[in-house]
């Protein structure tokens, strides 16, 4: 039987293939202008939601719909006879069409930009629009696979190889597109000193995951040349963002790749990525080719691809297949645009790809799928991969929970009262966990987030304290919500925001400068809610943020207090008490691979329990007596000085990172052939390398050493590199 016969059979079968949508990326958050039919521009509009439920608003929060090409304000229609306030063709609009209970939003006669909507009665605000979120959740359950993260298979190997298909629609043959070689750099660039402004100005996909995993995950991609499909972009989009028909094009492209046997040298395919030649539908409005976003492809992840390698049918010897014939194509895949924005030929940014690769590794979405709240906000790419500036250039680093879930770090458990120190999670795999006082699968995670690396646009650095509940329903909960906190509503991965405003839960923003903890944060003490006893029963006395346990609405006092935060910086300290055990030494210095480090430095726990108090923004206002701390927590002192040669003896990871980062910063290169080991890199016979290595490592550890101390440190001779691997060939 000829290969072409098998491919023909596959082409006939593919029409019965129906992909399962697992998730769609959130809409691009950047405000934009659009043209009206008369050529005038609209005021700034904003796109909300994802591929299953989305809508437009103006800057004042009034919902906007399209009507015969015009952008107009929406109004309520209790009969439900017109369109929903989503973009035209939304799955939700069509699939809920027959629901008599829905309160529909229809076009008004008021053109956006021609009136002040606040002066017109009956127009719909975003708050009213969000009442449809319950219907949206039911829709998601019908078309999106909401597999529990506990049921997802986590990827634990140290290498991950993707196959990236570049798909060009039949009507895009004359468009200028990024080259396959450019995408190889986009995915695989490994030289930290090489900045490619037009391809990967903030780093490649490989670098993003290498940095986040602290060198434990080597992610690479094999990228095909552009494959021209037989149908147009609009055909595959089919008025529903490509969620169903695009799978036909994927099968067609895979058949071409295997028929041409273009995958020689690949030994596995861990993930399948699709980059297409159109602009992403997650950008609202028409593109430069006048294509509506509903007739473009919305970036998403899906499964049930069902593609069988045709070459495997021609290999004899049972299961002893080799080379390209042995490759198995995964059922799960992601789809994204190869381009950014809605015009031009600029290559896409890494934000969306980072999010989808996170799914490949087994992570769930961490954004609020009702879009009433904002989930983890800009503190995890599984929540907001667009980043703080909305461009996708700076997807945030993965949160402590995501890194722990993927095995990139092992948290140090705090079981005793005392002072603890922690380095920036952008550089150090160091996270604390507190389990005592919480239900099974519920705990606190503590990390230090600083504005550096992919987190460089963080609004303000400090300690991030996460409340984790693996068994939560993942519905947002906040003060003032009906039944809260006894309704059991809270995110599975929830940031305990230091300003107490719960902006992430309320959907007010995706994070701000007052979310993280430090000595000048709005709240300086994190402890139990104001209720007394061991069980919280009075919602009126319940305060946030707190360290209470909440399992399905059963709220109990954990008794944990976290306070005495130091100033925000690369290296921070804090005090924990309420655990019933006191220690006479500081902990956590400086690396989690060592479970206990005793330093000649002591502090006593408070003699009485401090009360949470929020800082008063105005100096003319004083806190009430009831909110004043019952005792002033002791002032934390600076970390002790430590002989760097002693520290390096136990912490080669720090030495490795410090040497490499400093070398790159000063010499714009990492001379792989020059240094056979870390010992060579930090050999005193090469003064600049040794000094730079020590200085950078010391900076990462937050120590204060004089130049004399640095120069007088003992020579370092070791060959063990990052994560305990040999460092003969640094990454």
TrEMBL record:
Keyword Signal: yes
Domain Peptidase M6-like, first and last residues per copy: 265-403
Signal peptide: 1-19
InterPro entries: Peptidase_M6-like_domain (IPR008757)
Keyword hit for Disulfide bond: no
Ranges of biased composition (kind: Low complexity): 600-640
Pfam families: Peptidase_M6
Keyword terms of this UniProt record: Signal
SUPFAM superfamilies (UniProt xref): Metalloproteases ('zincins'), catalytic domain (SSF55486)
Source organism, top-level taxon: Eukaryota
Name the record gives this protein: Peptidase M6-like domain-containing protein
Species assigned in the record: Cyclotella atomus
Lineage: Eukaryota, Sar, Stramenopiles, Ochrophyta, Bacillariophyta
């Amino acid at each position: 039987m000829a290969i072409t016969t098998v491919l023909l059979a596959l082409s006939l079968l593919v029409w019965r293939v129906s992909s399962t949508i697992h998730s769609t990326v959130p809409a691009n958050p950047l405000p934009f202008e659009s043209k009206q039919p008369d050529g005038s521009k609209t005021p700034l509009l904003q796109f909300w939601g994802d591929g299953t439920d989305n809508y437009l608003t103006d800057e004042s929060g009034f919902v906007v719909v399209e009507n015969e090409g015009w952008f107009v304000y929406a109004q309520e229609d209790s009969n439900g006879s017109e369109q929903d306030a989503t973009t035209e063709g939304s799955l939700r609009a069509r699939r809920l069409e027959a629901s008599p209970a829905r309160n529909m939003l229809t076009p008004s006669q008021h053109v956006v930009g021609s009136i002040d909507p606040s002066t017109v009665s009956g127009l719909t605000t975003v708050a009213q629009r969000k009442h449809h979120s319950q219907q949206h959740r039911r829709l998601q359950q019908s078309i999106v696979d909401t597999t529990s993260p506990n049921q997802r298979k986590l990827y634990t190997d140290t290498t991950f190889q993707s196959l990236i298909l570049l798909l060009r629609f039949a009507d895009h043959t004359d468009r200028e597109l990024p080259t396959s070689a450019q995408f190889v750099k986009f995915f695989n660039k490994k030289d930290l000193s090489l900045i490619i402004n037009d391809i990967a100005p903030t780093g490649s996909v490989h670098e993003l995951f290498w940095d986040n995993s602290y060198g434990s995950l080597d992610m690479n991609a094999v990228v095909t040349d552009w494959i021209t499909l037989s149908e147009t972009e609009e055909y595959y989009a089919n008025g529903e963002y490509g969620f169903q028909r695009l799978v036909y094009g994927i099968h067609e492209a895979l058949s071409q790749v295997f028929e041409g046997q273009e995958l020689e040298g690949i030994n596995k395919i861990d993930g399948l990525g699709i980059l297409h030649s159109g602009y992403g539908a997650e950008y609202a409005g028409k593109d430069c080719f006048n294509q509506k976003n509903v007739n473009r492809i919305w970036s998403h992840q899906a499964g049930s691809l069902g593609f069988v390698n045709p070459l495997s049918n021609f290999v004899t010897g049972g299961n002893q297949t080799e080379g390209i014939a042995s490759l198995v194509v995964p059922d799960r895949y992601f789809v994204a645009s190869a381009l950014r924005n809605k015009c031009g030929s600029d290559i896409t940014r890494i934000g969306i790809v980072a999010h989808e690769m996170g799914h490949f590794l087994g992570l769930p979405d961490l954004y609020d799928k009702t879009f009433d709240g904002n989930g983890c906000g800009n503190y995890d790419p599984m929540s907001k991969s667009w980043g703080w500036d909305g461009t996708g250039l700076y997807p945030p680093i993965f949160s402590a929970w995501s890194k722990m879930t993927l095995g990139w770090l092992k948290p140090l458990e705090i079981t005793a009262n005392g002072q603890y120190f922690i380095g920036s999670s952008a550089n150090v795999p160091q996270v604390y966990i507190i389990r005592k006082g919480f239900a099974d699968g519920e705990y606190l995670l503590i990390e230090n987030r600083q504005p550096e690396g992919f987190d460089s646009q963080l609004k303000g650095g400090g300690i991030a304290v996460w409340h984790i509940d693996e068994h939560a329903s993942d519905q947002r909960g906040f003060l003032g919500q009906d039944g809260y906190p006894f309704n059991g509503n809270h995110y599975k991965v929830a940031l305990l925001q230091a300003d107490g405003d719960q902006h992430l839960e309320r959907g007010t923003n995706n994070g701000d400068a007052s979310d993280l903890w430090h000595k000048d944060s709005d709240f300086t003490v994190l402890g139990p809610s104001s209720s007394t006893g061991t069980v919280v029963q009075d919602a009126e006395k319940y305060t946030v943020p707190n360290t209470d346990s909440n399992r399905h609405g059963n709220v109990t006092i954990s008794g944990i207090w976290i306070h005495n935060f130091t100033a925000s910086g690369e290296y921070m300290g804090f005090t924990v008490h309420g655990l019933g055990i006191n220690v006479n030494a500081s902990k956590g210095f400086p690396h989690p691979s060592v479970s206990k480090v005793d330093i000649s430095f002591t502090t006593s726990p408070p003699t009485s329990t401090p009360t949470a108090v929020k800082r008063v923004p105005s100096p003319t206002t004083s806190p009430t007596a009831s909110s004043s701390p019952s005792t002033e927590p002791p002032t934390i002192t600076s970390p002790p000085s430590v002989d760097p040669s002693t520290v390096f003896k136990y912490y080669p990871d720090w030495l490795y990172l410090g040497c490499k980062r400093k070398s790159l910063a000063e010499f714009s290169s990492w001379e792989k052939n020059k240094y056979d080991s870390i010992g060579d890199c930090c050999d005193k016979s090469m003064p600049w390398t040794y000094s730079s290595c020590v200085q950078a490592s010391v900076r990462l550890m937050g120590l204060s050493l004089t130049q004399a101390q640095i120069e007088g440190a003992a020579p370092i001779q070791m060959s063990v590199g990052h994560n305990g691997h040999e460092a003969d060939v640094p990454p």
